[in-house]
Amino acid sequence: MNITVYLGANEGNDNRLREAVQALGHWVGESGNALVYGGSKTGLMGELAKAVLESGGKVTGVEPQFFMDAGFQYNGLTELIVTKDMSERKAKMIALGDAFIAFPGGTGTLEEISEIISKVALNQLNAPCILYNLNGYYDDLKHLLSLMIEKGLSSAERQKGIFFAETLEEIKDIYEQCKDISDVLFFSGELGYSYILTHVDDLKVPCTFISYTEKTLLSILLNFVIHYPDVPLNRLYIDFLTPVNDFMNLKKYLDPEHMPYCFENPVYNYETLKERAVELWESKKIDMMFTRTTNQLEVLNKLQIPYIHFLPTEEMVRDSIRHAINSIRLKQKNQLNKLVILIKLVYPDNISSQDREYLEITLHKYLLDFRKEYAYDFSLHAVSNRFELDLDSDLYKSSFSRIQDLIAFLDQKGDLEFRLGAGFGKSLGESHYQADLALQEAVKYGKNDGFVISGEDNALTGPLSLTRSLNYSYSNTKALDYSQSNGINESNLLKIVGLFQMDKDTIMTAASLSQWLNITSRSCNRILQQLLDSNLIEEIESQKQEGKGRPTRQYRFCKNNFIRTFF
Q1: For the whole prediction, is pTM greater than 0.90?
Q2: Which of 140, 254, 462, 549 lies deepest, with the highest CB count within 10 Å?
Q3: Which domains does the chain have, with CATH numbers?
Q4: What share of the chain is helix, strand, coil (3-state, %, to 5)?
């Protein structure tokens, strides 16, 4: 969350102000929030920015050009936005803010916070407005606002979003009360969406984002090839193709030597996006890039990296808003547990648009038939080739069984190829995030099947159609550390850990393990060799084959070593 703070460029003559503003800055940085402020290095403004940066937080400064000319800007901010005048500066600070705090300041601070008070009272701004009433600094303003209500010139209803906090602890309490004030969090892309879901605990509102479809991407690339015939696709960097969205299935259509460069860093944020672009450009691996991230444009222009900046179509925005509205409606039911099921259609190669539409209508009908036949109450909405089922459910086991029924129901129809992911959590936002992860596993599995992620530890179960389903957790930090240190794909390693938990005495071969992991036997052999070298498994007597040929090598877990390493 961006917290916009208004305060003075002077330090004042009270040393307590300096101490208080430093404490405020440390809290903003340590809480995972970001600061938006006036951008100056002087006085209390400079102390605030310094404290946030020291605490590992991000700081965006908004400075008018005439202050830049005077050299007032704080060098070393996360981002510095230069405006033509004070009016543009105020508008930008409001646009960037999710919450607003007025620290003790001068007439400029009073002017800025007065505009926020007015917008809150007129319902033009749905965000908390907090006046830091340190040592009674804003007592007179507090009295004035009360007098307005007393004289009938304002009302308590109009002032309900205006708060006076005597201490930093009170500010924290107000923030916790108001951080989920929105009905839904709506993001322009996956970057902000992913960040919020992974960094905000106990998010109580649904989240959604405007997503590009496989069809849209292919259309963009076709248009690019026509207009830029001299730029090969393998000299192109697309920063919104990531492992999280399975590279939007582009690897299905292009040979590896023709694939554009993608973003493959597990840390997905503005900084790593920039680093990847700079790395590829300076090493002369790319001639151009695609981006959806407006924050990148300033950097790309500065480095003179040729780019195409894509904005969503009206249709994409409408579909996403419709999805958000449905999410709000479900949230309003206020049940304890939420289940989200995502179903992705897989289209045959070279399918026509008419046939695509027919398949989507067919799946929609099948889902309605299932709802009626099994008396399973869920809301249903579709965005392109993805269908989402949302429902309240307090019975995990029965819901789990119904998901298996749904997979079997759709698979038996025989005329659709699909992948299913389900998430089961305490909030719709949590469940949707889990369902997205589960769907990624289903896509990688590559068959008409599904996976479920549930619980605080993100425990994954699947494939659901198998009698014995693997269960493993994305929260196993020891396994993730081992994966990075030893070059084993983290998803494959987590599944092996899950196999150990399910049956510590299981006997493995490269063939059987490859079936579980849905990878080639050659890849399995490399993983098995690494586990052998680490004394996590041991080879047992090989199984003799009928006739000629080599015996099949068999392995079992070294239980004590395995437990010490991963648990």
Answers
A1: no
A2: 462
A3: 2-181 (3.40.50.450), 214-309 (3.40.50), 314-473 (3.30.70.270), 477-566 (1.10.10.10)
A4: 50, 20, 30
